[in-house]
Design goal:
Distance between the termini: 42 Å
Order of helices and strands: HHHHHHH
Radius of gyration: 22 Å
Helix content: over 70%
Length: 222
């Protein structure tokens, strides 16, 4: 009986050691400090941006019905929407950085290391390439119908591409963004609604699920 208990104790110790090694390997190969709260914050930023964009579009259409087409008004609308998109993206990035920094501090892991650099690079390449492509389509070819779908598709590709360097759940958000972007190509008049659903609602749902899955217990303890 004593030998059996001793064997089971040693076996449990080996299993604990294997779990520790697995966690260390996961930390070294994946950036696990992404916070679900950053997804929620990004979604709120997107909803606020969509509200402003919708108001500007309505004002433009009312002016168009009253006075007809105005090249200056259309260019102003384009520039305002571009600046708004940049502001929303900047606020979403800063909120993600803050919540990620806070979570990394709780886990006592560095925010900036080889894995986080790999994550940043692999997500940035599709986003930057997509951003230039969409700006060319809008400013050079006046092809506004691709802007909403293109934002969703390129962003989804960035998430899928970066998922191998962080929690794998993020790739499902990427798949949803890509599918939503492809569907929205068939409804160009509702691009803003699809954009709002992808960057606003999906982000909030994803952020809450990630917080519930990975951070809730930590928050309860603290």
């Amino acid at each position: 009986m004593y030998h059996k208990v001793l064997f089971m104790t040693e076996q449990n110790q080996h299993l604990d050691a294997l779990h520790d090694i697995k966690r260390m390997m996961q930390r070294s190969s994946r950036f696990i400090s992404l916070s679900g709260l950053s997804g929620i914050a990004a979604g709120i930023c997107a909803l606020a941006g969509a509200w402003f964009a919708n108001n500007w579009l309505q004002d433009y259409h009312r002016a168009y019905e009253q006075r007809g087409y105005s090249g200056a008004a259309f260019r102003d609308l384009e520039m305002n929407l571009i600046l708004l998109a940049m502001a929303v993206a900047g606020l979403a990035f800063l909120s993600a950085l803050y919540f990620t920094w806070r979570r990394a501090g709780r886990h006592k892991v560095p925010l900036w290391n080889h894995t986080s650099r790999q994550l940043l690079w692999n997500t940035a390449v599709p986003i930057i390439a997509g951003g230039f492509f969409l700006l060319i389509m809008l400013l050079q070819y006046n092809e506004w119908r691709l802007i909403g779908p293109g934002c969703l598709i390129f962003y989804g590709l960035a998430l899928v591409n970066g998922s191998k360097y962080t929690v794998s759940d993020i790739r499902y958000l990427g798949y949803c963004e890509i599918i939503l972007g492809l569907v929205s190509t068939q409804y160009p008049k509702h691009s803003l609604e699809f954009w709002t659903a992808g960057f606003g609602i999906l982000h909030i749902i994803y952020g809450f699920l990630m917080w519930w899955k990975y951070e809730r217990k930590t928050a309860d303890v603290s």
